[in-house]
Design brief:
By secondary structure, this protein is of the alpha+beta class. It is built from four helices and four strands, in the order βααββααβ. The chain has helices at residues 14-17, 22-30, 54-63, 65-68; strands spanning 2-10, 34-40, 46-51, 72-81. The longest helix has 10 residues, at 54-63. The relative contact order is 0.34.
Length: 85
């Protein structure tokens, strides 16, 4: 099965800055064919999100309030071939 992975690298103070944008960020995930995802690290240093296809991942990045409000330092979209699961 071919899926698409979006990885984010967050700004160091993501926990302090994400509050006003978190609900919109999570709602947008539900509307963009996100299969699964979440923050990485404790405290979070980034995020990993899995989408059905590249177009959905690109649409998410283009609309994500985390990106629009400079909470994401870098992002990457790559195909992922699921081998098990």
């Amino acid at each position: 099965r071919q899926l698409t992975i979006l990885t984010y690298e967050y700004v160091p103070d993501i926990l302090e800055r994400r509050g006003p944008f978190r609900e919109e960020h999570l709602a947008l995930l539900a509307d963009n064919d996100c299969v699964m995802g979440g923050a990485v690290g404790d405290p979070p240093t980034g995020g990993v999100l899995v989408f059905e296809d590249r177009a959905s991942a690109e649409a998410f990045v283009a609309s994500d309030p985390y990106v629009k409000n400079n909470l994401v330092k870098a992002s990457r979209i790559e195909p992922w071939t699921l081998a098990i699961g």
